[in-house]
Automatic annotation (TrEMBL), chains A, B:
Gene3D superfamilies: Tetracycline Repressor, domain 2. One of its GO terms (molecular function) is DNA-binding transcription factor activity. Pfam families: TetR_C_33 (PF13305), TetR_N (PF00440). This is TetR family transcriptional regulator. It comes from Actinocatenispora rupis. Residues 13-73 form the HTH tetR-type domain. SUPFAM superfamilies: Homeodomain-like, Tetracyclin repressor-like, C-terminal domain. Residues 36-55 bind DNA. PROSITE patterns: HTH_TETR_2. InterPro entries: Homeodomain-like_sf (IPR009057), HTH-type_TetR-like_transc_reg (IPR050109), HTH_TetR (IPR001647), MT1864/Rv1816-like_C (IPR025996), Tet_transcr_reg_TetR-rel_C_sf (IPR036271). It comes from the Bacteria. Keywords: DNA-binding, Transcription, Transcription regulation.
Amino acid sequence: MPDATTERPYHHGNLRTALLDAAERSLREHGADRLALRDLAREIGVSHAAPRRHFPDRQALLDALAEAGFARLDAVLRSALAGADDDFAARVRAAAVVYARFATENAALLELMYTSKHRAGATRIVAAAEAPMRLLAEVITEGQAQGALEPGDPERIGIILFATLQGIASLVNGNFVPPDRLDGLVETAVEQFLRGARPAS
Amino acid sequence: MPDATTERPYHHGNLRTALLDAAERSLREHGADRLALRDLAREIGVSHAAPRRHFPDRQALLDALAEAGFARLDAVLRSALAGADDDFAARVRAAAVVYARFATENAALLELMYTSKHRAGATRIVAAAEAPMRLLAEVITEGQAQGALEPGDPERIGIILFATLQGIASLVNGNFVPPDRLDGLVETAVEQFLRGARPAS
DNA sequence: CCTACTATGTTGCTCATGACAACATTTGCC
DNA sequence: GGCAAATGTTGTCATGAGCAACATAGTAGG
């Protein structure tokens, strides 16, 4: 019987979600290294072993966070593109700005997302990453159709754009470049990209 | 008195270096997460508390590894550039290829190097990173002098090149892109960079 | 030489965490 | 209603980080 005052039913209801939420906050505040399952359990008010019912081990939770991160990134990008002009340059700019913002506002999460190395079972993460990458590739394809871009494998070109943005964000997140230079760098990168990948006149 | 057979003098001689070496191997084999000071101590044959005399805590060791990593990267880049042609495009290509190789052959180390977030005292790492960045900027400056590049802050342009390469390596290291595409991507990225940053004709 | 003094290692703790097992309570389905 | 699967709980173990007190080895003056 639940205690009327503390209101703690035996079953939490949706511990999994609560864990992911708490984990994301912890990630943001303290980084992945200091994220402890037991902390989350305490914070939520369940026993220290409860998380195990939803995530076999710590890494599984981190993987789930990364996976969700890519989904969110995809959503954010899609939303930005939906609101953007039809002009190819404008669309690339919009995507780039949004990506950069997402990447710097969720630095620790980004790290998690791209740090799948050394785990065999990162298949889900890689799959989740395909959505935003395909999205970029689609934008590229549009650009090629508009004649703004040289022909060629759109995926390859998209990957390079993706990589450039990720690299810039990574340099900012690592304090190698002051944050106030972010926008300028992204802008220059996009300009160069547009110039470098346009058809030979 | 040292035991003649086990040959273990009370003082190791240069534990610090031994620790860094062992740490780098462990990093390469198991990743930063599973790097344990006690493991290193065991492997080297000293007591579990010995590392503390050289690194106040685990993070300090990781920081030292990252710092050394940037030094090595700088050396590798310098060496590649020293052996490269005077031609600007050739120099950029050489640097890019070497960077990409270093980054993918030392994936876990690279991660450490760029993951200084969330630590206040990462000053040394950031400082160490300046060497290779300056090097890139110098190459850019040369290119501008040769007229192969548009004028403008060489640092900014160098950062973008740097970021692009880092991003590509990161995507490969994270298994988001198959390793055999690395060379092609780097090449394309360099071509686009050279086209995108050259002076408006 | 011999005596501090400092650097470097060692032993022995404490504490936290992840992982696991055995048990308890719900929930839902037949 | 009753049984099986979910979901939580308590208890335990192994491991590692960090700290303190102690031991040993170089080293620098006197």
